[in-house]
């Protein structure tokens, strides 16, 4: 693990932090951007430590392989130390980069699709917080709603196995976090969409943000995060869905299966989950990995295959970039099927390299796929040629 990652491991006792003046090179309104069309709520800025690992190491880590389970700082330190100890000589070291599901979606929309985007949240006054800010700002994201606080930035171990599947172990305890009372109507005013990720520990902030967003006429998109989060905190999730305030919901196959358990559903296939989500949301999408996705809007249901040409190296960010592509389609007025196709293209772009940030050559690959499928290709040059890492 690099020096920057080691410095980030100790966390302060008071994770709520205090607001600090923004640095000169910190968050600012992007010139000429105006109000972001799409906002992302990420309560705590997050830095990913991404590494390739073998299954023997994954067997030593508590929690289900392939899921996302929060861990304490001591557990994160143990995991990263074990990763370093198990890295063979010919394997790339741990890569540290700005991350988080919502940040991945928002960064992709800004850098690859040219959509004006902003982040609402908080980051620490440490090296990892500055890395997060530099990366998001470099990719054109409006960070004027991102508060800097005294304390440490959240981290996550992203462990990628030989098949490209990732196991996530986020450490959010004691990291700085945006509080519900810090949200204002002005944060949301003039935007079209708010993207959130379901998390029980952030439910108070999600409820507050969704409530303000709806008052300001903003559509809300929600990702179900992980099958473990759905399984362990299903009842609050059902309450959020039944509120009618979630306009668009994304779930992968495992999350959809967990969602239906305990609901009296004898059939837990993706189509059944789609029908369930469709009762509460205007748009519902269940992604199926290499099998593509199914989506529903009103009475319309479509099934769209994945792109066969996408060679998966790392599944990190696949769902996040799919969501970004789908949202791009919605704001451009594309059909439900074409929204899914764009999502398939963007999801296919990110899995071709390690981590949740799309490289320049993979954006080009995505544009080529979009042209082949007759989709609207963004008229821009991606601002990201390589990830900003430690």
Give your account of this protein's structure.
Helix content is 36%, strand content 20%. The strands form two sheets. Strands 5-4-1-8-9-10-11-12-13 form a nine-stranded mixed beta sheet, with helices on both faces. Strands 3-2-6-7 form a four-stranded mixed beta sheet. The longest helix has 15 residues.
Give the overall shape: globular
Radius of gyration over C-alpha positions, nearest whole angstrom: 19 Å
Strand content: 15-25%
Count the DSSP helices.
14
Strand order of the largest sheet: 5-4-1-8-9-10-11-12-13
Q: Could you report the average pLDDT, rounded to the nearest whole number?
A: 85
Encode the helix/strand succession as letters. HEEHHEHEHEEEHEHEHHEHHEEEHHH
Helix % is: 25-40%
Low-confidence stretches: 1-32, 384-390
Key terms for this structure?
9-stranded mixed β-sheet, disordered N terminus, 390 residues, disordered C terminus, globular, single chain, 4-stranded mixed β-sheet, 13 strands, alpha/beta
